[in-house]
Input
Amino acid sequence: MCELKAVIADDHPVVLLGLREVIQRDERFGLVGEALNSSELVHLMVLHQPDVVITDFNMPGDEVYGDGLPLIEHIVEHFPAVKILVLTMVSNQLIISRLLEMGVAGVIAKNHIHEEIGKALNALANDRPYKTLMAHPTSVLANAKVIDERFSNLSPREVEVLRLFVAGKSVGEIARLLNRSVKTVSTQKVSAMHKLEVLNDHALLTYCIKADPFES
Output
């Protein structure tokens, strides 16, 4: 059997190290590249044309590729033959369902990598999708108490950033308006996303619009 070329991507070196070790021990795969952000990932895919990509869902992106759903959509569109395994920190059934609809081979919760990665690689090596073991939570938007609790955990500065984000401002524009660095605004936005348990800009925008936390 021909060795399957694999590329891995995650902005946490420890996660990359773990993935590297697992793949290098599996003779069915050959690791051809490692990326720390979306630009590096796409560059490696163009360069190596891998058979398999294992990528974090949330990691530093850019205006071209972003991360989350936009990044996965780009990969699916431009590399239709690649098998995509997505790693994520947050269990959000709407996002998971969308990823599977887009054609990813599987989704793994990061806190279950050790239990699931071997099974997932075995499925990919046998040209099968990997059925995720992630839970199927009820939408938080149906529970006003959960919404209020999550928004109450945001700092005033995070709320300022989200208010402007929902108004259509980019991270750069928000930084200029609030007289903060782009890095600071980006960090505050990511922190807010983690507290609200949303995985990308589209989900964040949808959550904020439906929850309407800025209503006076």
